[in-house]
Write a structure and sequence with these properties.
The chain is elongated. The strands form two sheets. Strands 2, 4, 5, 6, 9, 10 and 11 form a seven-stranded mixed sheet that branches. The protein has a four-stranded antiparallel sheet with strand order 1-3-8-7, with no helix packed on it. The chain is mainly beta. A hairpin with a 6-residue loop joins strand 4 and strand 5. It has strands at about 1-5, 10, 20-25, 30-40, 45-50, 55-60, 65-70, 75-80, 90-105, 105-115, 120. It is built from no helices and eleven strands.
């Protein structure tokens, strides 16, 4: 009933930039907040950046000053602008949304959803 679709991943050289998008669709009533998470091979998933619908953002220390998260509430879309990328940023990036949607039957329901992930590879 709710889908999150990420896009924008790919291969980039060290020092380069990428912009990820996460579009939420479905019977959405209200998005409370969204976030980007990443998981590198052999490592646990970690938070990269989160943002509330009001625009309050939080970042992992490893990406502060390089990554910027933003949200377009009208389009239910979150973005992650990634600059000065390093090989350590290589991972599958997934988005998460904490939101209220219309469950049929059932009515307004609070839940969180995940996208399928997009690969980001930083390599020369």
């Amino acid at each position: 009933q709710v889908q999150l679709v990420e896009s924008g991943g790919g291969l980039v050289q060290p020092g380069g930039s990428l912009r990820l998008s996460c579009a939420a669709s479905g019977n959405i009533v209200k998005i409370n907040g969204m976030g980007w998470f990443r998981q590198a091979p052999g490592k646990q998933r970690e938070m990269v950046a989160t943002i509330t619908s009001g625009g309050e953002a939080d970042y992992a220390d490893s990406v502060k000053g390089r990554f910027t998260v933003s949200i377009n509430n009208a389009e239910n879309t979150m973005y992650l602008q990634m600059n000065s990328l390093t090989p350590e940023d290589t991972a599958v990036y997934s988005c998460n949304a904490d939101l209220i949607f219309l469950r049929v039957p059932g009515g307004p329901t609070l839940d969180d959803f995940w996208g399928q992930g997009t690969q980001v590879t930083v390599s020369s």
